[in-house]
Structure formats: C-alpha cells, structure tokens
Design goal:
Largest sheet: 5 strands, antiparallel
InterPro entries: Hva1_TUDOR
Distance between the termini: 22 Å
Strand order of the largest sheet: 6-5-2-1-7
Order of helices and strands: EEEEEEE
Number of strands: 7
Protein name: Hypervirulence associated protein TUDOR domain-containing protein
Helix content: under 10%
Shape: globular
Number of domains: 1
Number of helices: 0
Radius of gyration: 11 Å
Strand content: over 45%
Organism: Brevundimonas subvibrioides
C-alpha cells in the first residue's frame, strides 16, 4: 500500500503527454470499476483516485504515485 493519500476535494497535479494538468480529487476508488470504457483495477490494497481536470472537466483514474498535491 502506498503512503500517498488524498481526499475528495484535494487539489492535485499530474503529468501527461501535453504537460502538467491540475485538478481536484473526486473520490478514492477501492474496487474494480470502469471509467469511460477504461477498466480500473483498483482495490483496497491498491487504490486509485478519480480526478477531474480543472481545465477540461474530464475525469480519469490515476494511481497515487502519479499525483502530487498542488
């Protein structure tokens, strides 16, 4: 389990192919789910976070290691 934890409403940033994006954590995912036809293999021991881009409003799941507090 990772020591990087976030809560809903936290402002975070992450890198992607076009640079860095800032957004907010929507919720912590602790079980397998699907987001925009993408399978998210989250679990209690391996959580992911649903984040919403502040620029586009798009939502995506990210591993805690990909996120940094902004």
């Amino acid at each position: 389990m990772t020591d990087k934890t976030f809560k809903a409403g936290d402002t975070v940033k992450w890198d992607h192919s076009q640079g860095t994006t800032t957004g907010k954590v929507v919720r912590k995912l602790t079980r397998p789910t699907t987001t925009k036809s993408h399978k998210v293999a989250a679990s209690r021991d391996n959580p992911e976070y649903l984040v919403e881009s502040g620029k586009t409003g798009a939502r995506a799941a990210h591993k805690p290691s990909e996120l940094k507090k902004a």
